[in-house]
Amino acid sequence: MSIIAIFINVLLFLLLAPLFEGVTRRITARVQSRQGPPLVQPYYDLFKLLGKERINSARNWAFKLAPPAAFASILAVVALIPFGGKVNALGGRVDAITIIYLLTLGGVSVLVGALASRNTFAAIGASREMVTMVMIEPVLAMTLILGAVRTHSLGLGTAVFGTAGLGYSVATAVMLAAYLAALQAFVAKQPFDIPEAEIEILEGPYIEYSGPDYGLFRYAMMMKQMFYAWLFVAVFLPFLRTGTYAGDILTQLLGTLAVFVLIAVVGSTNPRLRIDQAVKIYALLILVSLGAVGLAVAGI
Amino acid sequence: MDAIARIETELRSRLGPDLKGLASPAPGRLFVDIDRRAVRPAARAIIDLGGRYMVGVGWDEIARNGTLGLIHLFAFDAGRFAVVLRTAAPAVDPVFESITPDIPSAGWTEREYQDLLGLKFTGHPKPKKLILADDWPAGVYPLRKEVPYNLEPPSAEDAAYQLDEAPPGTTVVPVGPFHVSLHEPAHFAVYVDGETIKGCDYRGFMTHRGIEKLCQTQVSYNEVPFVAERICGICGSVHACCYSQAVEAAAGLKISRRAEYIRTIMLEIERLHSHLLWLGVAGHLIGFDTVFMQAWRVREKVMWLAERITGNRKTYGMIVVGGVRRDITPEMRTEIEGVLAALEKEVLVLKNSIIGDSAIHRRAKGVGYLSKDEAARWSLVGPVARARGLDIDVRRDHPYAAYDDLAFNVPVTDSGDVWGTLLVRVLEIFESIAILRQALAGMPEGRLLTEAPEALPPLRHGLSMVEAPRGEAVHYVITGEENRPERWRVRAPTYANLQAVPAMLLNNQFADFPIILGQIDPCFSCTDRVAVIDAGSGRRRVVGRTELEALSRGPEAGRS
C-alpha cells in the first residue's frame, strides 16, 4: 500500500499542478477585469511545448542536462513527501534534509542551465536566482527544523507534521507568519518574480530555452509551486485530517487550492520588487524564522 | 515686450557687428540674424538671459545663394516669447563652432546636421554618427536638395556602429534593438557593475524614413498634416496641429475661433488617451500588470469618445491647415459630457489606488532622479520636466488654439523622480477633463475651415509649439515654391527628453531601467520621424467592440 502511495503522490502532482496554475491565471484575470484563458490552458501550453523540436542553442551538455535535472529533482521531492497524512515507502527511508537538498538541486539546475547558455540576461537572472535561493531556502529549512525540534526527530513525516501537529505554540505561529510572507518568493510570483522579470531581463534564466526543454522547466516550476502550497497545508493545517487516506488527500488538495487563491491575489496586487529591496525582506524573514526555532528550542 | 527689448540690447552689446538683423514680425517671436562666427556667444547669451534651448534647424540654400543655413530655436517661458537665432555658412566651408559644450541638449541637433547636411561643428564632445545608417556612403548628405528623396544606396556588409568604451569594471547589457520594454527599435548599451548602472550609450534612428524630405519634395501643404499625423501613433493631432500652426504663422493666416476650440478638444482627448496609456505601460514596466489592465480598460472609453467625434479610435485626421474637418454638434456635446463624467469617476478610483499603494512608492520614489538644474541644462520638457520642478507648459506659456480662454492648473512637483512624473501625469488627467468641459461649454459659432491663399509667399519662417502629452512638440516651417514647404523641421518631445536618459540612469539599479526610460514615455518613431503604412492582407474579419469586450471580460460585460 505504501508503495502505491508513492505513485499516487507523483500522479496527483503531475496531473494537478497545471490546473492550479490555471486557477491563478483565472483569478489574476478577474482582478484585472479580464475573462482570462480556460482553466486547462497550462496543459495546452505544456503539450505544445513538449511537442516541439529540441534545440540546443548553447551547444553544450550542461545546457541540455539542466531541464531534465530540474524536473527530476522536483519529481523526487513529490515522490518522497507524506501525502494524505501518510508516510510512504520512500518517505520512511529519508529525512527532512533530503527534501531540502533535492529542492536546492532543482534551483541549482536552473542556475547551471542559465550559466551554460552564456546569455547576458540569463547571467543576470542566474545571479538573482542565486541570491533568492540563498536567502529564501533557510525559511524552508527552519520550517522543517522547527518540526524536528518539537518531535526530536529529523524523520520526514515527524518533521513535517511536527510543527503544528502537537498543537499551536508561539513558535508555530511565528513560523506560520514567516512562511506566508515567504510564500510568494517560494513560488516565484510577484512581488518576488525577480529572477525572471520578463520586462527587465526577458525571463532571465530561461531566455535561451524553448520547446520541450522550456516545457520541462515550466512543468517543474508548476510542481514546485504546488509543493510549496501543499507544504503549507501539511505543516500548518493539521486539523484538515479526516482519518481516511482519500479524505485526507481531498482536504489537502482543497487547502492547496485555497493557498493558490491567496498566491494569485497577492501576486496580482503587487508590483515586482528590485532584488536589493527583496534581499532586505528575505533577511528579515530569515531572522524571524530563526527566532521561531529559537522559541521552539526554549519550548515556547 | 520689455523682455524682448532686453534681449535686443544685450545681443547688440555682446555681438556688435556680428549681429546682422533683428525683427519681431509676430507677437511672441523674435528673429535674430547673426554671422556664423557669433553662433556660440549668441547662444550662450540667450541661455544666460533665461532662454531654454528647443532645437536646431538646418537647411540647404545652396541653389539660391551658396550657403547652408542653421537656425537655433529658444523659448523664454516666463517672458512668453521665442527667439529664432539664424545664421548660415558657405557650402564650400560649412563649419560652425559647436554650442553643445554650453548646451548639452544641442548635441543631437548638431550631430543630425552633420549627418544630413554635411555641416561641421568644431569642439563637439561626441561627434559620432546619429541618424544615418552605419553603411550610408560618406559624402552623401540626404537633406541637400541635389539628393533625390528616394535614393537607395547599396548596403554594405561590414559596417557597424562603434559603441562608447565601457567604464572599467563594468559589463555591457544590450537593451535592444528589440527588447520587450522598448516596443520599438532602439539600442541602449547599458554598462552595469553588478546590478548598478554606470553608464549608457544610445544608438537609435534605426527606422528613419525621412518624412521631412518626403514632404519637402513630394506632397503639398494641405497633404502634410496627414503625413504629420502618422509621425506618431499617439500624438497624431499634436503633430498635425503643430505643423498647421507653423504654416499659418508663416502665411499670416488667422483661423476661426470655433476651429481653434475644436483643435483644443482634440488635443485634450489625445492627452487623456496618452496619459491613460502611459499609466498602463508604466504599471507593466514595474511588473504590475493589474495597473496596466485597469488603466487600459478606462482608456477604452476615451477611444470610444474619439471614434464618436472623428470616426477613428486613433489617428483622427481632424486637423488641417486653416482649421478642422469635422464639427462637434450639440448632441455630441451631451454625449461627450456623459463620457467625461463616467471617466472622471473611474480615474479617481485609479488615482486613489495608485497613490495609496506603498508598493508602487517603493518602485518609484527616488528612482531616475535628476535635479532641477540638471533638468534645465538638458532642456527637459513635459511631465518629466514638471516632475523636476520646472514650471513650464506651452499651453499656458505660449498659448495657441483656445488655451488663452481656458482656466487650468499646471501640476508641478519637485521630487525629481519617477514618482513625480507619475503624479504629474495622473493630476493632468483631471485638468484635461476640466479643460474639455470648459471648451465644450464655451465653443463659439463659426466656420470650420479658413482657406489659405492659393500661393504662399516663399521663404517665410513659421515656428509653432504644441504641448503634447509627453511634452513640447516644435515644428518649424520655411515656405517654399511649388505649394510645399522648403524646409519642415519636426522636433517631438522625446528628442529632447531622451538625450537626458543616460543622466537619469546613472547609479540606478538595472531593474529600474525600464521605468526610468519609460517615464519619458519614449516615442522612438517620433524621434526617428517614421511613416509606417500597413498594406493589409486581402481578407479581413471585423471584430466589433461588443465581441472584443465579450472575449476579454465575459458575455455580460460585452452587452453593456
Descriptive report:
The complex is a heterodimer of chains A (300) and B (560). Chain A is an all-alpha fold. Helix content of chain A is 72%, strand content 0%. Chain A has helices at residues 2-31, 41-50, 61-80, 96-116, 120-151, 156-165, 170-186, 198-201, 211-236, 245-268, 275-297. In chain A, α3 (61-80) packs antiparallel against α4 and α5 packs antiparallel against α7 (170-186). The longest helix of chain A has 32 residues, at 120-151. The radius of gyration of chain A is 19 Å and the shape is globular. The model of chain A has no long low-confidence stretch (mean pLDDT 85). In chain B, β9 and β10 (196-203) form a beta hairpin. Chain B starts with a helix and ends with a helix. Chain B is of the alpha+beta class and 560 residues long. In chain B, α8 (257-285) packs antiparallel against α15 (418-442), α9 (289-310) runs antiparallel to α10 (330-355) and α10 (330-355) runs antiparallel to α15. In chain B, the strands form 5 sheets. A 5-stranded mixed β-sheet of chain B has the order 1-2-5-4-3. A 3-stranded antiparallel β-sheet of chain B has the order 8-9-10. Chain B has a 3-stranded antiparallel β-sheet with strand order 13-14-15. Chain B has 21 helices and 15 strands. Residues 530-534 of chain B have low confidence and may be disordered. Chain A binds chain B through residues 28, 31-35, 120-121, 124, 190-191, 193-194, 197-200, 202, 268-277, and chain B through 171-174, 179-181, 195, 283-294, 297, 359-360, 362-363, 509-514, 551-554, 557.
